C-alpha cells in the first residue's frame, strides 16, 4: 500500500508558534485555505482510493478540496490526531517546543514509555496511529491519503519506516500541506519513498 501522510494547512496557531493540540482546534488561515485548495493539483497524478482526516477541524478543512476532487468521503479518525501537548498546551516559547519535540523523537528512538508532560506516552500515541493505518490497509486500498499533523507524522515515520532515522526527521520539518509518501504494510513494515516530493537519501548521506 502507498500511504500519503499530509500535514494540514496553515492555522492561526501555526503563525503564533503555539503547541495547539486540543480538539476541536482552530480552522485555517486564508493561506491555509489556499494550500488546501492546491492539494488536488499537487496530487493529480495519484490515484487515491481512501481519504482520512483527524478529529481536529484543520485536517478536515484541508481534506475537503481533495474529497471534492476525488469523490471520496473523508473518514474521520481520532487516532491520527496530533500528539497531545499535555501541560505544554498553547505554549509558544522555545523551551516548551523543544521539550515537545525531544519527547516525541525519543519515542521514535524506542523510549515509548516516556510520557509527554501531562499527556500521552509514546506507546499510546504510536498505537493509535498504527490502528488507523491498519484499518486503512485492511480495506484493500492501494493508495491511502491521511491528512494529519506535523509532529505525529514525523514521529510515526521515524518510528515505523525502516529506512529513515530520527536525525533525518529532526532535520526536516514538515511544512503545512507537506506530504510524506511511504510504501509497505503493517505486517511487512514501511519504507519512506518521498519527503515533500524528494526521494530519500540513503542513511548517513
Task: Walk me through what this model shows.
With 205 residues, the chain is of the alpha/beta class. 40% of the residues lie in helices and 17% in strands. The chain is built from seven helices and seven strands, in the order βααβαβααβααβββ. The chain has a seven-stranded mixed β-sheet, with helices on both faces.
> H/E element string?
EHHEHEHHEHHEEE
Mass-distribution shape? globular
- Give the % helix: 25-40%
Structural class by sheet pairing and helices: alpha/beta
Question: What is the quaternary state of this protein?
Answer: single chain
Please list the strands of the largest sheet in the order they lie side by side: 3-2-4-1-5-6-7
N-C termini distance: 27 Å
Main β-sheet, in a few words? 7 strands, mixed
SS summary, helix count: 7
Low-confidence runs (pLDDT<50, min 5 residues)?
Answer: none
**β-strand amount:** 15-25%
SSE blueprint and pairings:
Layout: E1 2-7, H1 12-16, H2 30-42, E2 50-53, H3 57-70, E3 74-76, H4 94-108, H5 122-138, E4 143-148, H6 150-160, H7 166-171, E5 179-185, E6 189-195, E7 198-199
Parallel strand pairs: 1-4, 2-3, 2-4
Antiparallel strand pairs: 1-5, 5-6, 6-7
Helix pairs in contact: 2-3, 4-6, 5-6
